[in-house]
Design a protein that fits this description.
The chain is mainly alpha-helical and 266 residues long. It has one domain. The protein is 79% helix and 0% strand. Helix 2 packs parallel to helix 10, helix 6 packs antiparallel against helix 7 and helix 8 packs across helix 9. The protein starts with a helix and ends with a helix. The structure holds protoporphyrin IX containing FE. Protoporphyrin IX containing FE binds next to helix 3, helix 5 and helix 6.
Amino acid sequence: MTLSRIASPAQMLRWGAAAWFVAATVGQWAFVLFILLFFGGHALSGDLAGLNDKPHVTGYVPGDVFGNVQFLSHALMGGVVTFAGTWQLVPAVRRRWPGLHRWNGRLFFGLSLVAALSGLYLTWGRGSQLGPGSNLSITLNGLLILAFATLAWRSALKGDIVRHRRHALRAFLLVNGVWFLRIGIMLAGLVLAPLGVRIDYQGAVFVGVSFASWLLPLTVLELYLRAERSTRAVPRYAMALTLALLSLVMFAGSAAAAVFMWLPVL
Ligand code: HEM
């Protein structure tokens, strides 16, 4: 039986994208839930010292009011922006509630810009640094968020929907770079720990995963956009299969992050 009897190349590509979206949403919402319970819980109870129950580069520092506010608000903003991003990708929301798409889009782009700026402050002002390679990667990630969130917002204001979609998808993936980094480190740990390889913040594995956390999603997106435009069946089937495999990998990484990284501190 040929593949085209099961589904057309376009249909297959849509299914691949849908599988990717479902796996990403499950993993990202697990991250959002952790942020809400951990950072939101400590903020609501006023137990700011409890923020250090989890390892941070620079967590709560007694007396550093400005730095603590930046740290806590950055993490909480990260949760809101991650949650808001999901809804922008749901076609039914865009079709049935265009007003919601517009307002949620303003929230997403606005908070993405502020969160990227406060992240840059935490890194370079407060000095929360893990090493030169990681600093360079997160800084480029932050600058690209500023660039693509602005481009996506501007093209929406101009009514250029084709450009808006492309730039908004790039902004979405870049904003989720911090989430990709966490599941990437978990996956690297699952593969490398049994081989006796330790992951340290300045080593090649951590720095490699840091760059991959935003470069790889951007590359896959460009290939997806090309496959969408292609009139040939093979690139579309290949992309659909790639997205299906990536969904499984992301699901495994998210489950590992939830079990080993987030649940133990809640
Ligand atoms: C806009 C997308 C971003 C989101 C959604 C986000 C989300 C978060 C979250 C949830 C945390 C708390 C993490 C935890 O304790 O597990 C965090 C911490 C942090 N983020 Fe971001 N972030 C973003 C962008 C950035 C950027 C662009 C930078 C740097 C240029 C950055 C630098 C930091 C730093 C330095 C910390 C504190 C790390 C520590 O002291 O442990 N973030 N971010």
